Structure to design on (566 residues):
């Protein structure tokens, strides 16, 4: 490759971005990996060790956290994807015909996860709105009769918060594809005598599959690294990995800090794999995707 | 294409039916019910079990969160300053990068986009923890500047990805034509390029602002609890058990998000 004026122009335009991502993101990651394998900036000692990663195999707390993180992220993602798909299929005509539907559909996306978690607490906690309504109509007697749905053993509160937040996101990504492909394929299949179910299974679903799977990957990657929802709605033990990482990173005992960083590195590697998967699928989608989660 | 325009026009002329209203109600309730609940809670007084609706109302929580003694107005200020700085820096970094990524073809472009996707989609947890050691050495921990820098990790690439879509609708030949007609490069930028991408820039900056605005964990790591932003006080208030004040802070916390959304809905076609 010959270096010419075009290459120089491209390089100089990308330089500020490259500097930002290179120094802050890649540099931060590099420091994180180094610290997780025994390099210490505090003591200046550096001897290679894998013991901070051994925890994932030997330590009961790490194993439980890894398991619950994977389980809750999987369940939340699956439910968000299913609900999102159903929302998209039910409301695509409305979205096509009436603009307010499309605008309103974006509102849940704008709600920060922290606020969603607070709202779920208000609704589902033992003295929350749902318990009060059920008690008012006599289904349960007193708040003791209400099942524990927040900070609970099964992580129901966490799952509810994530599904409320992520299902509209999935729906929006799927509706974007549905609106682009239009009704033509469906109409052709109908002309050829395909039943409603066959049109869904063999025409619509294959067409929206890349959008559905890629948005699910984004959701899964996000949930495995997010802190606020499991902090507010989860249990102390076993906590999801980001909560454990925060706890150990802020510990007064600096010796456990590399353990926290090792968790961060594991999460980063896992999500990176998902992002690459997302990129491969996004290539199949012609629209410029806007992964809108924050 | 023409047929499609016609059908779009036809569809727009159709009056919304019951199904459309139902759809709006469903989507609105995703956000509307939570907002209603937060509003009720923030104005409520002694809203205890088993009352389904509050019987007493008070402005106490709102007075409290705007009382300088509570420290909350200061946190709002810190949050706004940080988010504005992040938005401005993100924009400055993103405009040149988004332009070449959207308009030029070169080898390694997909790899560049992947490098932008990673910090947006992968949580900034690990890089922030790694940076802490480096920032400690150069005195950037516990400082607003350090927090701004760590917020840039997800915000700047996100801003670039959003700007790319407005640049991909931009025709660079327009600049050439303006140059041929004798405009200086500076004039071309101010009178041709900027007006074409300004709406996209506003939206991208708005989202960079929101990305920074909603960060919690990395602010805690790099700010070390010294840089107090709104989400940190929101969570502290929830832990403290003052439900009405928590709800009031949550509403303030939501405000910029709603504002950006309204602007986006106004200037950009949703879903396109």
């Amino acid at each position: 490759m010959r270096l010419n004026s075009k290459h120089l122009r491209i390089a100089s335009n990308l330089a500020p971005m490259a500097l930002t991502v290179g120094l802050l993101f890649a540099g931060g990651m590099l420091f994180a990996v180094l610290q997780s394998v025994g390099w210490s900036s505090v003591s200046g000692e550096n001897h290679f060790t894998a013991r901070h990663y051994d925890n994932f195999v030997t330590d009961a707390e790490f194993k439980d956290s890894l398991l619950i993180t994977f389980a809750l992220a999987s369940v939340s993602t699956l439910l968000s994807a299913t609900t999102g798909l159903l929302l998209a299929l039910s409301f695509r005509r409305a979205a096509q015909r009436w603009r307010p539907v499309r605008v309103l559909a974006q509102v849940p996306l704008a709600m920060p996860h922290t606020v969603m978690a607070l709202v779920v607490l208000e609704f589902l906690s033992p003295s929350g709105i749902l318990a009060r309504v059920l008690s008012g109509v006599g289904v349960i007697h007193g708040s003791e009769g209400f099942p524990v749905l927040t900070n609970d053993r099964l992580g129901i509160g966490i799952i509810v918060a994530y599904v409320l937040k992520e299902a509209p996101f999935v729906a929006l990504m799927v509706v974007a594809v549905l609106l682009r492909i239009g009704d033509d394929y469906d109409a052709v299949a109908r002309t050829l005598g395909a039943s409603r179910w066959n049109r869904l299974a063999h025409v619509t679903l294959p067409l929206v599959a890349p959008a559905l799977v890629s948005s699910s990957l984004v959701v899964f990657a996000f949930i495995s690294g997010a802190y606020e929802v499991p902090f507010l709605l989860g249990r102390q033990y076993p906590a999801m990995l980001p909560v454990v990482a925060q706890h150990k990173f802020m510990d007064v005992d600096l010796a456990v800090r590399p353990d926290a960083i090792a968790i961060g590195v594991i999460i980063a590697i896992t999500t990176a794999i998902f992002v690459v998967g997302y990129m491969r699928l996004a290539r199949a989608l012609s629209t410029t995707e806007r992964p809108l989660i924050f | 294409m023409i047929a499609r325009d016609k059908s779009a026009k036809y569809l727009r002329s159709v009056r919304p039916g019951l199904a459309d209203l139902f759809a709006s109600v469903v989507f609105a309730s995703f956000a509307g019910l939570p907002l209603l609940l937060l509003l009720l809670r923030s104005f409520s007084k002694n809203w205890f079990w088993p009352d389904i609706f509050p019987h007493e109302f008070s402005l106490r929580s709102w007075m409290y969160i705007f009382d300088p003694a509570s420290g909350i107005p200061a946190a709002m200020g810190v949050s706004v300053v940080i988010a504005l700085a992040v938005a401005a820096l993100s924009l400055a970094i993103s405009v040149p990068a988004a332009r070449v990524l959207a308009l030029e073809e070169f080898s390694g472009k997909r790899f560049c986009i992947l490098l932008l996707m990673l910090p947006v989609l992968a949580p900034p947890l690990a890089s922030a923890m790694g940076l802490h050691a480096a920032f400690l050495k150069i005195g950037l921990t516990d400082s607003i500047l350090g927090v701004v820098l760590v917020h840039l990790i997800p915000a700047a690439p996100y801003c670039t990805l959003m700007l790319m879509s407005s640049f991909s609708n931009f025709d660079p030949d327009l600049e050439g034509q303006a140059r041929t007609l004798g405009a200086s490069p500076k004039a071309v930028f101010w009178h041709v390029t900027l007006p074409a991408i300004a709406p996209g820039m506003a939206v991208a900056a708005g989202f960079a602002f929101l990305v920074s605005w909603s960060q919690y964990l990395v602010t805690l790591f790099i700010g070390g609890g010294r840089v107090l932003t709104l989400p940190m006080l929101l969570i502290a208030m929830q832990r403290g058990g003052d439900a009405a004040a928590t709800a009031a802070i949550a509403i303030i916390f939501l405000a910029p998000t709603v504002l950006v959304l309204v602007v986006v809905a106004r200037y950009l076609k949703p879903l396109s």
